[in-house]
Write a structure and sequence with these properties.
By secondary structure, the chain is an alpha+beta fold. The protein has helices spanning 5-33, 52-60, 126-137, 139-143, 152-176; strands spanning 41-49, 73-80, 90-95, 102-108. The longest helix is centred in the N-terminal third of the chain and has 29 residues, at 5-33.
């Protein structure tokens, strides 16, 4: 089998670009929603197993020809004001409303995949390698508060305000169908 090195390289670049765009787009969509107003916030993405009932519901939508093609996992994108504990199979970013600036804090894949992100591999990724290193040797570095993080009192006040808004919206929907 003959391989065209230029075509293969172009496909690799396209593959890396598409994966990068998916993550960037999910983060930017959350930033644009401004879940905490103008305050910067963390975007915690982690893998979650889809239970059998949810999988059956997905299958019944008709989007999948056979049940075996229904996904078994999904990625949950959670905006939050505090840093979670670092864990495998997760990513953490910091978003800044009003900008397209996204700070990568960590990208830690499943342990079984760690080797494939090392230098000279097809899926080599410096951010992942650094995240894995800190996860193994200096987890406190990943979990420490950023200089621009809000105080606990400010965070509680914002969460309370968001909660009031959500409860108000539920009440309006129940009462007036809005």
């Amino acid at each position: 089998m003959k391989i065209n090195r230029l075509e293969t390289h172009d496909r690799l670049l396209k593959f890396k670009q598409m994966n990068s765009l998916d993550i960037s787009q999910c983060c930017q969509d959350l930033i644009d929603q401004r879940p905490f107003g103008e305050h910067s916030f963390y975007i915690f993405a982690h893998k979650r197993t889809i239970d059998e009932n949810e999988r059956m519901q997905l299958f019944l939508t008709g989007r999948y020809l056979e049940y075996q093609y229904v996904p078994t996992h999904t990625v949950v994108w959670q905006p939050r004001l505090t840093k979670p504990k670092a864990q495998t199979n997760s990513m953490l970013f910091k978003g800044y409303p009003g900008s397209d600036n996204i700070k990568v804090i960590w990208m830690i894949p499943e342990r079984e995949l760690w080797e494939q992100y090392k230098k000279d591999n097809l899926t080599e990724n410096q951010s992942v390698v650094e995240s894995i290193h800190h996860f193994e040797h200096n987890r406190a570095f990943l979990e420490k508060k950023d200089d621009d993080d809000l105080s606990d009192e400010e965070i509680n006040a914002i969460y309370k305000q968001v909660s009031y808004g959500a409860n108000y919206n539920k009440m309006m929907k129940r009462t007036y169908g809005i």
